Amino acid sequence: MKAYKKVLSVAFTVFCLSSFFSPEAGFAQQTGVKRTDLQKHYIEAPGYETIQARIDFEPGKAVGMHSHPGEEVIYVLEGLLEYQIDGEKAVVLKAGDVLFIPAGKNHSAKNVGKVKAAELATYIVKKDKPLLVFKK
Protein backbone atom coordinates (compact mmCIF):
# COMPACT_ATOMS: atom_id res chain seq x y z
CA MET A 1 0.00 0.00 0.00
CA LYS A 2 2.88 2.40 0.81
CA ALA A 3 4.43 1.85 -2.63
CA TYR A 4 1.04 2.52 -4.29
CA LYS A 5 0.71 5.85 -2.44
CA LYS A 6 4.27 6.78 -3.43
CA VAL A 7 3.51 6.03 -7.11
CA LEU A 8 0.33 8.13 -6.90
CA SER A 9 2.29 10.96 -5.26
CA VAL A 10 4.94 10.89 -8.01
CA ALA A 11 2.27 10.73 -10.73
CA PHE A 12 0.43 13.71 -9.21
CA THR A 13 3.68 15.71 -9.01
CA VAL A 14 4.48 14.95 -12.66
CA PHE A 15 0.93 15.97 -13.67
CA CYS A 16 1.17 19.26 -11.77
CA LEU A 17 4.58 20.08 -13.22
CA SER A 18 3.45 19.25 -16.75
CA SER A 19 0.50 21.60 -16.28
CA PHE A 20 2.83 24.41 -15.19
CA PHE A 21 5.45 23.92 -17.89
CA SER A 22 4.58 24.19 -21.55
CA PRO A 23 4.87 21.18 -23.85
CA GLU A 24 7.60 23.06 -25.69
CA ALA A 25 9.75 22.97 -22.55
CA GLY A 26 9.71 19.17 -22.71
CA PHE A 27 10.77 19.29 -26.36
CA ALA A 28 13.66 21.57 -25.51
CA GLN A 29 14.81 19.30 -22.68
CA GLN A 30 15.01 16.34 -25.08
CA THR A 31 17.43 18.24 -27.32
CA GLY A 32 20.04 19.25 -24.72
CA VAL A 33 18.30 22.46 -23.69
CA LYS A 34 16.65 22.62 -20.27
CA ARG A 35 14.22 25.36 -19.19
CA THR A 36 13.62 25.80 -15.47
CA ASP A 37 10.74 28.14 -14.66
CA LEU A 38 11.68 30.25 -11.63
CA GLN A 39 8.60 32.41 -11.12
CA LYS A 40 5.33 33.43 -12.74
CA HIS A 41 3.19 36.42 -11.73
CA TYR A 42 0.27 38.36 -13.07
CA ILE A 43 1.21 42.00 -13.46
CA GLU A 44 -0.80 45.21 -13.39
CA ALA A 45 -0.88 45.50 -17.19
CA PRO A 46 -4.29 44.02 -18.05
CA GLY A 47 -4.05 40.67 -19.81
CA TYR A 48 -0.30 40.17 -19.22
CA GLU A 49 1.92 38.14 -16.94
CA THR A 50 5.64 37.83 -16.34
CA ILE A 51 7.52 34.54 -16.38
CA GLN A 52 11.15 34.19 -15.45
CA ALA A 53 13.16 31.11 -16.41
CA ARG A 54 16.69 29.81 -16.56
CA ILE A 55 17.60 28.15 -19.86
CA ASP A 56 20.63 25.82 -19.86
CA PHE A 57 22.27 24.78 -23.15
CA GLU A 58 24.68 21.90 -23.56
CA PRO A 59 27.59 22.66 -25.98
CA GLY A 60 26.38 22.89 -29.59
CA LYS A 61 22.69 22.63 -28.65
CA ALA A 62 20.04 25.09 -29.81
CA VAL A 63 16.42 26.11 -29.67
CA GLY A 64 15.14 26.61 -33.22
CA MET A 65 13.23 29.58 -34.59
CA HIS A 66 10.31 30.46 -32.35
CA SER A 67 8.39 33.43 -30.97
CA HIS A 68 6.62 34.52 -27.79
CA PRO A 69 3.30 36.36 -27.27
CA GLY A 70 5.16 39.30 -25.72
CA GLU A 71 8.65 40.63 -25.06
CA GLU A 72 11.64 38.61 -23.89
CA VAL A 73 14.51 40.15 -21.92
CA ILE A 74 17.65 37.98 -21.83
CA TYR A 75 20.65 38.11 -19.48
CA VAL A 76 23.45 35.64 -20.32
CA LEU A 77 24.61 33.91 -17.14
CA GLU A 78 27.46 31.79 -18.52
CA GLY A 79 29.03 30.59 -21.75
CA LEU A 80 28.62 31.88 -25.32
CA LEU A 81 25.18 32.05 -26.93
CA GLU A 82 24.43 33.01 -30.51
CA TYR A 83 21.06 34.63 -31.12
CA GLN A 84 19.48 34.99 -34.54
CA ILE A 85 16.48 37.33 -34.79
CA ASP A 86 14.54 37.32 -38.07
CA GLY A 87 15.75 40.13 -40.31
CA GLU A 88 18.82 40.93 -38.19
CA LYS A 89 22.47 39.91 -38.12
CA ALA A 90 23.27 37.09 -35.65
CA VAL A 91 24.93 38.18 -32.40
CA VAL A 92 27.12 36.19 -30.00
CA LEU A 93 26.75 37.13 -26.35
CA LYS A 94 28.84 36.16 -23.31
CA ALA A 95 28.15 36.14 -19.58
CA GLY A 96 26.89 39.56 -18.46
CA ASP A 97 25.51 40.56 -21.88
CA VAL A 98 21.83 41.36 -22.42
CA LEU A 99 19.37 41.18 -25.31
CA PHE A 100 15.81 42.40 -25.91
CA ILE A 101 13.53 40.46 -28.26
CA PRO A 102 10.34 42.24 -29.39
CA ALA A 103 6.93 40.58 -29.09
CA GLY A 104 6.13 38.04 -31.79
CA LYS A 105 9.60 38.26 -33.39
CA ASN A 106 10.99 34.88 -34.51
CA HIS A 107 14.39 34.09 -33.06
CA SER A 108 16.71 31.21 -32.17
CA ALA A 109 19.48 30.61 -29.65
CA LYS A 110 22.50 28.29 -29.82
CA ASN A 111 25.40 27.50 -27.52
CA VAL A 112 28.43 28.17 -29.72
CA GLY A 113 30.97 27.52 -26.95
CA LYS A 114 32.73 24.39 -25.75
CA VAL A 115 31.11 24.39 -22.28
CA LYS A 116 27.59 24.70 -20.91
CA ALA A 117 25.87 28.05 -21.44
CA ALA A 118 22.88 29.55 -19.62
CA GLU A 119 20.59 32.55 -19.80
CA LEU A 120 18.04 34.15 -17.52
CA ALA A 121 14.96 34.88 -19.64
CA THR A 122 12.21 37.22 -18.46
CA TYR A 123 9.02 37.13 -20.53
CA ILE A 124 6.32 39.81 -20.39
CA VAL A 125 3.60 37.96 -22.26
CA LYS A 126 -0.14 37.73 -22.85
CA LYS A 127 -1.93 35.51 -20.33
CA ASP A 128 -3.43 32.22 -21.48
CA LYS A 129 -1.31 32.04 -24.65
CA PRO A 130 1.37 29.41 -25.35
CA LEU A 131 4.70 30.80 -24.13
CA LEU A 132 6.61 29.35 -27.07
CA VAL A 133 5.46 28.97 -30.67
CA PHE A 134 7.86 27.24 -33.06
CA LYS A 135 8.14 28.69 -36.57
CA LYS A 136 6.67 26.35 -39.17
Give a quick precis of the structure:
With 136 residues, this protein is an alpha+beta fold.
Spans where pLDDT lies below 50 across 5 or more residues: 3-29
Strand content: over 45%
Largest sheet at a glance?
5 strands, antiparallel
Overall tally of structural domains: 1
String of helices and strands: HHEEEEEEEEEE
- Beta-strand segment tally: 10
Q: Which homologous superfamily in CATH is the superfamily?
A: Jelly Rolls
Structure description:
The longest helix is centred in the N-terminal third of the chain and has 19 residues, at 2-20. The chain has a single domain (22-134), classed as Jelly Rolls (Sandwich), CATH 2.60.120. It is of the alpha+beta class and 136 residues long. The protein has two helices and ten strands. A five-stranded antiparallel beta sheet has the order 1-2-9-4-7, with helices on one face. The chain has helices at 2-20, 23-30; strands at 33-42, 48-57, 62-67, 70-78, 80-85, 91-94, 98-101, 107-111, 117-126, 133-134. A hairpin with a 5-residue loop joins strand 1 (33-42) and strand 2.
What attributes does this structure have?
single chain; five-stranded antiparallel beta sheet; globular; alpha+beta; 136 residues; Jelly Rolls
Question: What is the strand and helix layout of this fold?
Answer:
Elements: H1 2-20, H2 23-30, E1 33-42, E2 48-57, E3 62-67, E4 70-78, E5 80-85, E6 91-94, E7 98-101, E8 107-111, E9 117-126, E10 133-134
Antiparallel strand pairs: 1-2, 2-9, 3-8, 3-10, 4-7, 4-9, 5-6, 5-8
